[in-house]
Write a structure and sequence with these properties.
Elements (H helix, E strand, L loop, with lengths): L8 H6 L6 H8 L1 H13 L9 E8 L3 E8 L4 E9 L2 E6 L2 E3 L14 E4 L2 H9 L7 E4 L9 H12 L11 E3 L8
Parallel strand pairs: 4-7, 7-8
Antiparallel strand pairs: 1-2, 2-3, 3-4, 5-6
Helix pairs in contact: 2-3, 4-5
Length: 179
């Protein structure tokens, strides 16, 4: 008996950055998935595929802070650190943060919600920069959004898309321990 896909074609087409090539091809077929992946990862991002917008960019000599507005009018930040051969991007995984570390601003206004895997991936896509390191240490505690974080890593590593190397990805955590 053939297994039914767990997603619908409408879900894939409405939020394509949230799916691996394999997931896409199981739902919309290999030809359409190939064309869509080509559009998503080999061309400049199109507004119709995005669920967030660049609202502001603050630049200094070696860093750029991107402020993104999400569809629900919440904001997150992503930081790009320039290097000679590309750059490192610090990626957010949550809107706000439930931890409240004294050294961090992210938790000042509390936790709002987890980011989707698509929103995590789009932070890198919207930079339109050569990225050779990804560090999950922006807003939020990455391991508190474990499922979406791991899915985003699978999407970023997908050989049909960005094909990002595993050794270029770091997850930074505070290893929160309740009192």
């Amino acid at each position: 008996m053939k297994r039914l896909p767990k997603y619908t074609p409408a879900e894939v087409r409405n939020d394509p950055y949230g799916f691996t090539y394999k997931e896409m091809s199981e739902v919309i077929g290999e030809n359409e998935a190939k064309a869509l992946y080509e559009e998503l990862y080999k061309q400049l991002p199109r507004k119709k595929n995005l669920s967030m917008l660049v609202k502001n960019i603050c630049k200094s000599s070696d860093t750029e802070k991107y402020v993104y507005e999400l569809k629900d009018n919440k904001y997150i930040e992503t930081v790009f650190i320039k290097r000679r051969d590309g750059g490192t991007v610090c990626v957010s995984t949550q809107v706000g943060c439930p931890v409240g570390c004294i050294f961090c601003e992210s938790g000042r206004n509390g936790f709002v919600r987890n980011l989707t895997s698509s929103e995590i991936v789009q932070q890198i896509i919207l930079l339109r920069r050569k990225v050779n390191r990804i560090v999950f240490m922006g807003m939020g505690e990455p391991l508190f959004n474990y499922d979406n974080l791991i899915k985003a890593i699978h999407i970023l590593r997908d050989r049909y898309g960005l094909n990002f190397p595993t050794d270029g990805i770091t997850i930074s955590t505070v290893v929160f321990c309740p009192k």
